[in-house]
User: Which sequence fits this backbone?
DNA sequence: AGTCAAGAGATGTATGTACAAGTCACCCCC
DNA sequence: GGGGGTGACTTGTACATACATCTCTTGACT
């Protein structure tokens, strides 16, 4: 295998040497598709050729191809070689969850003004979503998020107390709460985003510099751990001119999601 | 093992004898998980037991398990049996695309008032999205969609002419345009939904019986064929009180999407 | 020249084997 | 009685093989 230039930066991920063969093959194949080495729309080398090139049996090669097929990077059929297909990649969990990572991924500079960070008793809706009794202590964080210095979103997060208390050792004006929680090994694993539209209230309007009643794109998010324990409930209100959400789906069931700057789409 | 009686256990999987073995196994396993025969959170039978039960080798069993693993219906790891996990299923393509199918899937009665169906020259935005020159003929369809008789959404669809002309033989007040197009073997394969919020204009307000400026949840949809040819561009405006969209994603990259009645979530 | 059939080559499916690596229960020993 | 090792069992990975099925080209026949 051609493991030249192994990812020296990836301490979180195992080095290529110790990964299973079919995963290394899959990564290599994906690199070739995305680099254009296997051009879009062109058939890729046959399984036998790949087996010969990497000196393996058909098993690992087929596992790798199946992985790419499931993500849509390969399409095609029986009897003829599969065809490379560059797809719009689904935004990874972190990018979709973290405003900071998202902003950077679209080449904008994220910013924030923290308006409030307080330990208080859970409000009715947040308590219900987090599965807490009303009045249990939680940590609330309210921030105005900026893109290139311009107000873009108003974020109201409610953390269960065990998670939220780490925020008191952290200045939410300096960076990404999401990354800080990851660093503390909080198991952010699953998120459910519910999207609708609301009219701006007085406070929304004042902070986002719009008129009361103007439409806002609201995303309510419940983040849970790997075992389904709620960790955070958030109510994010975007200026529609600054961000849109996209969902792409196909008859085969593949789904990719994204959040984009409005003008860019 | 092959010489054991022909099909002595094959009656257990009766789904269409001509499907490949691993697909039949996958369907059967999924049925057992969803029916509770393999209880949530409990380890499923080991691969050897499944091989014995269905009289196959490990290969098809493992392919079927891998399929369920990729959809999140099975979780678990090395050394210990995988654990059944009932997941909220992703809404299939048809349900997500068709208002009619969606309404029925949530137990509501869909309805529609067709306001316009006309062959005309493409408007600038629709033309750009459909990849047409401005002024090329298209078919526009404007319908007010109802849930249980109550206005829920205003739909403005623009079809490329080749697709849209079948609508003149079809009464859009009677049912689902989507199903009619499928029946005519139009290759609706891929859809990209862009979600944002807009203020209701005069016509929106009048038809949806709200005030001008009230927030609406807008979904712009570009539907394309399997080869990427644009077929339809739509601008759907939902009353936020009637529908929300949800996106669920995990660190492993699985994504499920849904559209729900607002109160039900 | 056009048409159709045969065949080569590709992928899809299925089996059998072997070993590596992880989990768990049990038992021995301290 | 508790701690730790051992071994059976399970899943993960890899290879070799065989055959089915589909695609596309080649070539003979009309």
Assistant:
């Amino acid at each position: 295998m051609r493991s030249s230039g192994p990812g020296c930066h990836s301490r979180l991920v195992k080095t290529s040497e110790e990964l299973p063969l079919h995963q290394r093959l899959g990564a290599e194949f994906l690199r070739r598709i995305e680099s254009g080495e296997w051009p879009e729309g062109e058939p890729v080398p046959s399984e036998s050729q790949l087996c010969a090139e990497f000196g393996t049996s058909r098993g690992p090669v087929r596992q790798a191809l199946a992985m790419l097929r499931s993500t849509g990077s390969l399409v095609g059929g029986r009897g003829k070689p599969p065809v490379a297909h560059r797809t719009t990649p689904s935004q990874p969990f972190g990018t979709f969850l973290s405003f900071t990572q998202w902003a950077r991924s679209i080449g904008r500079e994220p910013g924030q003004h923290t308006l409030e960070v307080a330990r208080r008793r859970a409000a009715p809706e947040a308590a219900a979503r987090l599965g807490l009794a009303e009045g249990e202590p939680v940590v609330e964080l309210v921030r105005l998020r900026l893109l290139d210095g311009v107000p873009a979103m108003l974020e109201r997060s409610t953390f269960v107390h065990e998670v939220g208390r780490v925020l008191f050792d952290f200045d939410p004006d300096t960076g990404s709460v999401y990354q800080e929680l990851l660093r503390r090994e909080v198991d952010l694993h699953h998120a459910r985003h519910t999207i609708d539209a609301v009219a701006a209230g007085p406070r929304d309007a004042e902070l986002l510099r719009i008129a009361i009643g103007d439409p806002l794109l609201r995303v309510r998010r419940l983040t849970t751990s790997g075992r389904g324990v709620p960790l955070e409930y958030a109510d994010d209100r975007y200026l529609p001119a600054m961000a849109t959400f996209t969902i792409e789906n196909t008859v085969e069931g593949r789904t990719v999601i994204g959040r984009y700057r409005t003008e860019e789409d």
